[in-house]
TrEMBL record:
<keyword id="KW-0547">Nucleotide-binding</keyword>
<comment type="subunit">
    <text>Monomer.</text>
</comment>
<keyword id="KW-0324">Glycolysis</keyword>
<feature type="binding site">
    <location>
        <begin position="342"/>
        <end position="345"/>
    </location>
    <ligand>
        <name>ATP</name>
    </ligand>
</feature>
<feature type="binding site">
    <location>
        <begin position="57"/>
        <end position="60"/>
    </location>
    <ligand>
        <name>substrate</name>
    </ligand>
</feature>
<dbReference type="InterPro" id="IPR001576">
    <property type="entry name" value="Phosphoglycerate_kinase"/>
</dbReference>
<keyword id="KW-0808">Transferase</keyword>
<keyword id="KW-0418">Kinase</keyword>
<dbReference type="InterPro" id="IPR015824">
    <property type="entry name" value="Phosphoglycerate_kinase_N"/>
</dbReference>
<comment type="pathway">
    <text>Carbohydrate degradation; glycolysis; pyruvate from D-glyceraldehyde 3-phosphate: step 2/5.</text>
</comment>
<protein>
    <recommendedName>
        <fullName>Phosphoglycerate kinase</fullName>
        <ecNumber>2.7.2.3</ecNumber>
    </recommendedName>
</protein>
<feature type="binding site">
    <location>
        <position position="316"/>
    </location>
    <ligand>
        <name>ATP</name>
    </ligand>
</feature>
<feature type="binding site">
    <location>
        <position position="111"/>
    </location>
    <ligand>
        <name>substrate</name>
    </ligand>
</feature>
<keyword id="KW-0067">ATP-binding</keyword>
<feature type="binding site">
    <location>
        <position position="144"/>
    </location>
    <ligand>
        <name>substrate</name>
    </ligand>
</feature>
<dbReference type="InterPro" id="IPR036043">
    <property type="entry name" value="Phosphoglycerate_kinase_sf"/>
</dbReference>
<feature type="binding site">
    <location>
        <begin position="19"/>
        <end position="21"/>
    </location>
    <ligand>
        <name>substrate</name>
    </ligand>
</feature>
């Protein structure tokens, strides 16, 4: 692909697609990880003397209508402060935008436009007509073939990859294509069903696949153990057994349980640590036990490459968080090349304050998972085609 950093942007109209889809509460950005990741690209274009336009989606609004709840205004407020420069939010941009060299305009939520999600050619051409150079930098949205990610790249005079997108692809490529071994993949989360393709593709490349959370419970059950009241998927037991034949799979062999009902879960909920043989019909497995956490920590410390997606327990609740905490610290201490990605995973990275110690933190949620599944990201594929 063509790289933004190889182009002369001075005086050019540069339209950058970022993923500024961040959580907002009462008009304030509550997690700025994606904004911090996008800022260097924006600064680079501004410093190069480009006329900079940035576009993004936010959430999943109904198309064809403005909705304050999904406005990018809080993001613009954040950028104004971060850049110490005026940033204007433009609502009616499709017919043309006035922006000076070294200035920044942010387009209002692209998902307000009719045709964005179905990748309408007419809309994509309108976006393309606004720029001399289109920069795709939104790794987090690169798995979506939409007008602002894919269509615009078809029609823009020049379409290139921004530094954030390039960095994401390089880091993930390093972990997947020719990883330092052993490659340890840690996949947590509640359900095997939503991560089956990821587990499948990782089972083929990882030396050790560590599973946690509800996913681990299905593996625990697949080995013939009682899981009591725990979240697990009976139908997927054969899949769990099949994965165990593909590679070494580590799941809980001691567990943290509670008998509190879901609605009573609290930071000081009562828990017990049990061997698998001791789990009773009333128990709900909500985390690894200490032995499993320690075993996984040792595996992590001996890894060459670590890929992490998903917590191994209900870490939002302190009483059920120990496993995820131990693993987070083990990743932080491991000399391995480590990558963490996915929304819940980043919340754990924040909670245990290990962001500086993970080699690469992906801004992708769905895009990160699709990359791990070995899927081609459509917004990257179009850049490759344009480069030919
Ligand atoms: C994400 O948060 O994963 C991306 O911003 C994509 O959002 P979407 O799933 O609404 O397309």
């Amino acid at each position: 692909v063509i790289k933004m950093t190889d182009l002369d942007l001075a005086g050019k109209r540069v339209l950058i697609r970022e993923d500024l889809n961040v959580p907002i509460n009462e008009g304030k950005v509550t997690s700025d990880a994606r904004l911090r990741a996008a800022l260097p690209t924006i600064k680079l274009a501004l410093d190069a003397g480009a006329k900079v336009m940035v576009m993004s989606h936010l959430g999943r609004p109904t198309e064809g209508e403005f909705n304050q709840e999904f406005s990018l205004q809080p993001v613009v407020n954040y950028l104004t402060e971060a850049l110490s420069a005026p940033v204007k939010l433009v609502s009616n941009y499709l017919d043309g935008v006035e922006v000076g060299a070294g200035e920044l305009a942010v387009f209002e939520n692209v998902r307000f436009n009719i045709g964005e999600k179905k990748n309408d050619d007419a809309l994509a051409k309108q976006l393309a007509a606004l720029c001399d150079v289109f920069v795709m930098d939104a790794f987090g949205t690169a798995h979506r073939a939409q007008a602002s990610t894919h269509g615009v790249a078809k029609f823009a005079p020049v379409a290139c990859a921004g530094p954030l997108l390039t960095a994401e692809l390089d880091a993930l490529g390093k972990a997947l294509d020719n990883p330092a071994r052993p490659l340890v993949a840690i996949v947590g989360g509640s359900k095997v069903s939503t991560k089956l393709t990821v587990l499948d593709s990782l089972s083929k490349i990882a030396d050790t696949l560590v599973v946690g959370g509800g996913i681990s419970n299905t593996f625990v059950a697949s080995a013939g153990n009682e899981v009591g009241n725990s979240l697990y998927e009976k139908d997927l037991i054969p899949e769990a057994q099949r994965l165990c034949q593909e590679t070494q799979v580590i799941f809980a062999d001691d567990v943290t349980v509670t008998t509190d009902g879901f609605s009573d879960w609290k930071h000081d909920s009562k828990t017990a640590i049990k061997a698998l043989s001791e789990v009773s019909a009333e128990d709900d497995i909500i985390d690894y036990g200490p032995q499993t956490a320690e075993k996984v920590a040792e595996i992590i410390k001996a890894a060459g490459t670590i890929l992490w997606n998903g917590p191994v327990g209900v870490f939002e609740i302190d009483a059920f968080a120990k496993g995820t905490e131990v693993i987070s610290h083990a990743i932080a201490e491991s000399p391995a090349f480590s990558i963490a990605g996915g929304g819940d995973t980043l919340a754990a990275v924040d909670k245990y304050d290990i962001a500086d110690k993970v080699s690469y933190i992906s801004t992708g949620g769905g895009a990160f998972l699709e990359f791990l599944e070995g899927k081609k990201l459509p917004a990257v594929e179009i850049l490759e085609q344009r480069a030919k």
